[in-house]
UniProtKB/TrEMBL annotation:
A GO molecular-function annotation: monooxygenase activity
Protein name from the UniProt record: BA75_00006T0
PANTHER family in the cross-refs: MONOOXYGENASE (PTHR13789), PUTATIVE (AFU_ORTHOLOGUE AFUA_6G14510)-RELATED (PTHR13789:SF309)
Coiled-coil ranges (or none): none
Domain FAD-binding: start-end pairs: 14-339
Source lineage: Eukaryota, Fungi, Dikarya, Ascomycota, Saccharomycotina
InterPro entries to which the protein is assigned, alphabetical: FAD-bd, FAD-dep_Monooxygenase_BioMet, FAD/NAD-bd_sf
Signal peptide: none
Residue ranges crossing the lipid bilayer per the database entry: 12-31
A Pfam family annotated for this UniProt entry: FAD_binding_3
Species: Komagataella pastoris
Domain of life: Eukaryota
Length: 435
């Protein structure tokens, strides 16, 4: 395919996005900035969903958001605290600091990692999605990819046809499963999460004013103020499958869940129980996962982004980062392959989807494969090295020895990755044709 494929057709490129989660919303913002496109997001819920607990924004996610939203406005809903956004890892019993993962010193202060609450973040992003772009109550059932485009079949709605489909339908993505046939499986841990008014913990002495994680061989307790007078708790507990099966995603476990956590963390740093005691209740998220896509595209017509492509299930607290990165790569790939000659002359822009999806996939797949590998390395290190320490002194020494700040992941520069891929293609593929 060449850039002239659409030369007899000046109709806008019709882009359909399935899913209006964090990643679908950012896709709506970014892709509607392209020339001569017609973008629609199809979301299965009837209205914006007000769910979710805290969310960490890494440097990489903020790098992408800076290009799409007012980054100074965004600061109003972010929390960084005493460690300038750095993640503090603490000894499970003593609370002693074992490591702090700080943003690199050269990072613009507005792009240093931060924490926030998912609902205000989602609302903030929605305020940048052009009016009327999201159609609610559209549940995609099946997609048919042909050489002329993509047909999307919805439950109880008329089908639509698009030139390009972006699947942002999350971890349980029907679109992905249609192609891979995968099943989502329990990962072995439940995330218990809550956000509540910070007022409730204000009288607890010595509670750190930072984002802290108390760690012990897999189980982790995270505390953090979140901005907007909210406080967040996330507990990762290796509950057996029969416990996890009692819950569905995002279910309030009420008093039972709170007491379950109090019991589980009873011999940990005493400050943990002080917070659990005043916390009103807790919501459960049994963590599930599926194989990550090795190729994020189908037939030059379909691109997977976010959890639909890589069901991270909380890994590295960076699922949103990976999704925002996908979106930026897709946006830049489409922008790169639009016929600039047409843009310069004011004529409708035309796209080379074959090349765009190639650039998109090449920009993302190597990085994502490396992230997935890291999951395996980390699990192995915990199992075979840290948890086999013979005493606490050895445990601390081993923990500190292998602790990695994962800067290469958190601060991944998607724009730089994209440019590298484009430059690798050589100049002949970038020829501009002037009529
Ligand atoms: C415990 C936990 C902690 C986490 N912490 C962090 C963190 O700190 N930082 C971070 O970056 N990430 C974190 N994540 C990951 C992050 O939440 C996800 O990676 C991110 O929300 C994925 O966004 P998404 O838009 O791809 O998917 P989703 O948010 O799942 O959105 C998918 C959307 O698609 C819609 N949809 C689904 N199916 C259909 C259909 N058939 N038709 C139409 N619409 C459909 C859904 O209704 C939904 O609105 C965490 C995850 C977990 C579980």
């Amino acid at each position: 395919m060449t850039i002239t494929e659409y030369s007899n057709n000046s109709k806008p490129l019709k882009i359909a996005i399935i899913g209006a989660g964090l990643v679908g919303a950012v896709a709506g913002i970014a892709l509607s900035k392209l020339s001569n496109v017609n973008v629609t997001i199809y979301e299965r819920s009837e209205k914006p969903r007000e769910v979710g607990a805290w969310i960490g924004l890494t440097e990489s996610s903020l790098q992408v958001l800076r290009k799409l939203v007012d980054i100074d406005e965004l600061q109003k809903i972010l929390f960084r605290g005493d460690q300038d956004g750095g993640y503090v890892k603490r000894h499970w019993k003593t609370g002693e600091i074992l490591a702090v993962n700080l943003s690199s010193t050269t990072t613009d202060r507005r792009l240093k990692q931060a924490r926030t609450h998912r609902v205000p973040l989602h609302n903030f992003l929605f305020s940048y999605v052009p009016e009327g772009l999201i159609k609610y109550g559209y549940s995609a059932n099946k997609v048919n990819v042909t050489k002329d485009g993509v047909d999307v079949i919805f439950e109880e709605k008329d089908p639509i046809h698009a030139d390009l489909l972006v699947a942002a339908d999350g971890i349980y993505s029907r679109t992905r499963r249609q192609f891979t046939g995968d099943t989502v499986q329990y990962k072995g841990a439940v995330a218990y999460r809550n956000v509540f008014p910070i007022e409730l913990i204000k009288d607890i002495p010595s509670l750190p004013n930072d984002t802290s994680a108390w760690v012990k061989d897999g189980d982790i307790m995270f505390f953090s103020p979140l901005g907007l007078d909210q406080y967040g708790v996330v507990a990762l507990v290796f509950d057996p499958e029969d416990v996890a099966k009692k819950f569905i995603w995002n279910e309030n476990t009420g008093e039972w869940g709170r007491e379950h956590l109090r019991k589980h963390f009873a011999d940990w740093d005493p400050i943990i129980d002080k917070v659990l005691k005043v916390m009103p209740d807790i919501t459960s998220f049994p963590l599930e996962t599926a194989p990550w896509l090795k190729d994020l595209t189908v037939g030059n017509r379909l691109a997977f982004v976010g959890d639909a492509a890589h069901p991270t299930s909380g890994a590295f607290g960076a699922g949103a980062q990976f999704g925002f990165g996908d979106v930026w790569a897709l946006y830049r790939s489409l922008q790169e392959t639009v016929s600039n000659a047409y843009v310069d002359t004011g004529l409708p822009a035309e796209y080379d989807l074959h090349r765009a999806l190639f650039l998109f996939n090449e920009t993302r797949r190597h990085f994502l494969a490396r992230v997935e590998k890291q999951l395996g390395y980390d699990a192995d290190t915990y199992k075979r090295y840290i948890s086999t320490a013979r005493n606490d002194k050895e445990w601390r020494a081993r923990f500190r020895q292998v602790e990695s700040p994962l800067e290469w992941m958190r601060e991944n520069n998607v724009e730089a990755d994209f440019q590298r891929v484009v430059d690798e293609q050589g100049p002949f593929l970038r020829t501009i044709y002037i009529d």
